[in-house]
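Deliverable D4.2, example record:
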Amino acid sequence: MWRARIPQHIDEQLSRYARSLLDRHGGAESITRAETDLHRTVRDEGDETREHDSDQYFQQRVTPWPRRPWRSPHGSGSIARRWRTYRMDLKDLRYAIAVADEGSFTRAAARLNLAQQALSKQIGDLERELQVRLFDRMPRGTRLTPAGAAFVEAARATLAQSQRAMAYARTTSRRESQVLRVGLTPSSVLAGDAATSFSFFRRREPLVGIEVTESAPLALIDAVRDGTIDLAILCSPPDDSGEMAGECIAERPLGAVLPAMHPLAETDVVHLRDLVDLPLITYGRDADPVGYDALVQALARRGLKPRLADVRAGGPPGLIGPLIAEGEAWALATADYSWPLYERTPGLVFRDFADSPIFEQRWILWLHDTPSHLVRQFTEMWKTLHGQWSHRDLSYTI
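Output generated by the structure prediction step:
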């Protein structure tokens, strides 16, 4: 019955919070005290609105937040305006990192597959929540402010930690379910060893399932980082980030696959410097930056700055072989693994290098902090089955 004594114009302005105060008072408290609490609530909300309105940062540098009246579910009137709250999440960290890396909203939006206007709005909302300016908007591109540089550095660490958290959860789940997920590059050279290893491992661990994923090296590394796979078998060592660990499981010396009609095919061994005019067919840097850079550096130390062919391909030999046989290029191969696949193509020869050897390596990589016992068992079994070549100075390997 006490509600009947509340004036109608006050009831139309009740917020949920204010009405809860009245409900809590019930009939036990006086109507005077209930009305006092109500007016204090409305006054505090008005003070908050005036405080934001007087903030010079938002007036001068950032478009004010849109303020929309909130309507009471108990009436048609509007109460004091409320700020629309923005909540930062991991997506905003990725957006800020992309803008910092690209130096432009347009390029960052293309990288993120977003509209440029949508990305600009997200960054603006983030800056308003933080109440700091992260980027200076330049006539051409953007530039990090000191506060923005500190934020982006912390954002990178936060994203890395979130990936590790996901990886831990997925790895723990797989340990319970006894599944080993392996990533491979699409290579006919590697397929034979992998098939033998999987078969032998299943005989030793009949309760463990094996799931195999084929993808490019960079995609496999990302999959290891986020816990999608447990290990990846690649031709390059871990990078310098410290997130990945690994073990070299094999290394073999490389030689040259040449056109049989080429003058160098008449010699028993080949000096790398003599191949300067013949284009090299190899994979592109975007496929495996670590392996590609190591290969180019190893060739340069032996006097060859390779001239790259117009065709970028790392395999299979059945595709590359005919291109070499036409006399327009050469490729790298191992005598015992790759060359047997090349020699099925007529018009090719294999020659060892007269220079100090360049070794092709095979690595098993896993996440540094979460190696499971299945990863260790599989690595040791691979080395037992296929042999372990001694480690050599990395300056002589690719």
